[in-house]
Write a structure and sequence with these properties.
Length: 524
């Protein structure tokens, strides 16, 4: 990220370092990666005061900020000892009065401020300015001293006082009950203005109102809900005063601050709702799913939820409830693999006391998709022809048996008006959608997964390719070989899993890949 130094409202000779988005030249957000830039872009940018390093979720790094600990050019004893304990990369802060450290490890306590608020430690949702002005000698980021750091901070930090420094501030803010409100509250809590000390509380209220309006798009009701959920709440917020525009009305002091400080710009990024728990997410999704499933509009909806969030369970419940509430409803649940189909069918029976119809593609094993003439049918399918039209419906010698307990038996439609739910593979869902005419098809995971199934990359494939690369002469293929070796390890790890439910996904795969490279090759 890049940043500009700006005066802090209400504090003389104090400045805040405001991050900026290089693409839009508007303020950036330490929690939104789409407002960041690459290191090369940041160091080549002009018109800014410096660069910073942002993390929006825990990645195993601690960003440590030591404030006002350099007196007459000499580090205070407590700060010097802390730096020695961490034994990690340390640089001077932009002001020259403090230090910034980067340490590898986990944040072992919930609070972020220590030692009379001169030490701040973050593992997500923040950015740290980077000066490159190294303190003493340059060191690598240490990965073994985090526990010692927190033990030392516990020794030098005074016990928290029961009495607040500002007794007018209540310790019982209202709870944020809406997922989108929680997301915005998290955003404003990541800004430097939120955690700074204020000598003028009215100035603080005005600043927080403007910042929150930026994220709510000047939705004053939403801004008020969110601010009342902060620790800034005080009794003065509820004092009434004349409305600035309407002579016959009175408004609270907080509402006055909110309406008097609208944001000139509004947040352009995407806010991801934060649900309190899986049950809350389930209730929201269940209602949305049922509404979508019963709608007559033809549309595609993409629902992205963290693995384990319960999206498949909720979608399945919505299908079953639509089946029971709407005569003639036809739903189809498309699963990535046949093994997953068995798991989901079992789950549906146990959780909802319901048995769906399982339909599978042609299979040479005994199953609902059993094909006695699999070899011939598979040749037609692989050539891009319809085996059902060219073989099954006319000249297959096993047609009669197939209609009873084989592949063709799956196409026997129930009587008109009868609801039904099918569970099938992605490919079968695509092929049979026109035939069955479902009201909705739910694709679990990515529909592109059908291509992955047909073109499976095995550990042996990668090993063979590495052997070929090793034989090439005259060029440096070291990085290619490292990449392929790491890929082998990941494929091997996946092949040892008992169920597709345990597959590592998205960020987990990237992290595993990064860990494999770092462990084997370090910073090469």
């Amino acid at each position: 990220m890049v940043w500009k130094s700006q005066p802090r409202i209400g504090q003389e000779n104090k400045f805040t370092k405001v991050p900026y988005n290089l693409r839009t030249e508007r303020q950036a957000d330490a929690t939104s990666a789409d407002t960041w830039a690459t290191f090369d872009q940041a160091i080549q940018a002009t018109g800014y005061d410096g660069i910073g390093f942002a993390i929006n979720q825990p990645i195993g790094l601690l960003l440590i900020d030591l404030d006002d600990c350099i007196i007459d050019g000499v580090a205070e004893d407590w700060a010097e000892e802390l730096i020695q304990i961490c034994d990690t990369y340390t640089e001077y802060s932009p002001s020259g009065h403090g230090f910034h450290l980067i340490l590898q490890g986990q944040k072992l306590v919930a609070k972020t401020r220590f030692h009379n608020k001169q030490v701040e430690i973050y593992d997500s949702g923040r950015y740290l300015t980077i000066t490159g002005d190294v303190y003493q000698e340059r060191k690598e980021i240490n990965d073994s001293t985090a526990e010692l750091l927190f033990e030392y901070l516990d020794q030098i930090s005074p016990a928290e006082s029961v009495v607040k420094v500002q007794p007018s501030i209540t310790s019982n803010p209202t709870e944020v009950n809406l997922p989108l409100d929680r997301a915005i509250l998290t955003k404003i809590q990541s800004h430097p203005e939120y955690s700074q000390e204020w000598s003028d509380l009215s100035e603080r209220d005005a600043q927080m109102a403007g910042l929150t309006n930026f994220y709510t798009g000047n939705n004053f009701d939403q801004t008020e809900r969110i601010l009342r959920a902060t620790e800034f709440y005080r009794e003065k917020w509820d004092e009434l005063r004349p409305h600035p525009q309407r002579n016959d009305q009175r408004i609270t002091f907080l509402r006055y601050q909110i309406e008097q400080n609208p944001s000139d710009n509004v947040y352009q990024g995407e806010l991801t709702p934060l649900y309190k728990d899986r049950d809350e997410l389930h209730q929201v999704l269940l209602s949305d799913f049922k509404q979508w499933f019963k709608s007559e509009d033809r549309r595609i909806r993409v629902v992205a939820v963290t693995p384990g969030g319960g999206k498949t369970y909720t979608a399945t419940q919505a299908l079953v409830e639509c089946y029971r509430e709407n005569p003639g409803f036809i739903g189809m649940l498309a699963i990535h693999t046949k093994k997953r189909i068995k798991e989901e069918v079992k789950s549906i029976k146990e959780n909802f006391d319901f048995e769906p119809i399982t339909i599978l593609g042609k299979d040479e094993e005994k199953s609902t998709g059993y094909c006695r003439n699999y070899s011939e049918a598979n040749k037609l399918d692989m050539a891009g022809f319809s085996a059902r039209n060219l073989l099954c419906e006319s000249r297959c010698e096993f047609r009669e048996e197939c209609l009873i307990d084989g592949y063709l038996s799956q196409f026997e439609l129930p009587s008109d008006g009868q609801s039904r739910i099918y569970v099938t593979t992605h490919q079968s869902a695509k092929n049979w959608a026109e035939y069955f005419g479902p009201d909705v098809i739910v694709f679990d995971e990515y529909p592109i997964g059908i291509n992955i199934t047909q073109n499976e990359l095995t550990e042996k494939n990668v090993a063979d390719y590495r052997s070929c690369v090793k034989k090439l002469n005259g060029q440096n293929f070291k990085l290619v070989l490292i990449f392929l070796k790491t890929l082998q390890k990941i494929i091997k790890k996946h092949s040892q899993l008992e169920s597709n439910r345990s597959f590592l996904r998205d960020q987990q795969v990237r992290q595993l890949f990064s860990d494999c490279l770092s462990k084997k090759y370090g910073d090469q």
